[in-house]
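Private note to self, pasted from the team thread so I don't lose it. Backbone tokens:
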């Protein structure tokens, strides 16, 4: 089974363009934990990754002259998908 990962980025909670409010790292970690519980994956590791200029706009990852990058604390979960348990009476190969 391949090793996969999923990133959990702080969600925008409100505020305007000049004063945006995002989830805290604790809230993002709680959301990642809920996904782990609900999905039934085999978690290998959860880590914090810091990435510049991520987002939904078309310029994500781009830095324009005179602009400073925004740094985002992201929760990354490394995992394997679980194989379903064998049916009773079946033979594993």
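Design output:
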């Amino acid at each position: 089974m391949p090793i996969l990962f999923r990133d959990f980025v702080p969600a925008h909670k409100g505020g305007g363009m000049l004063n945006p409010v995002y989830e805290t790292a604790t809230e993002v970690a709680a959301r990642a934990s809920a996904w782990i519980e609900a999905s039934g994956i085999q978690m290998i590791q959860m880590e914090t990754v810091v990435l510049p200029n991520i987002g939904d706009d078309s310029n994500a990852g781009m830095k324009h002259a005179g602009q400073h990058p925004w740094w985002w604390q992201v929760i990354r979960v490394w995992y394997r998908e679980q194989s379903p348990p064998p049916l009773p009476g079946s033979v594993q190969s």
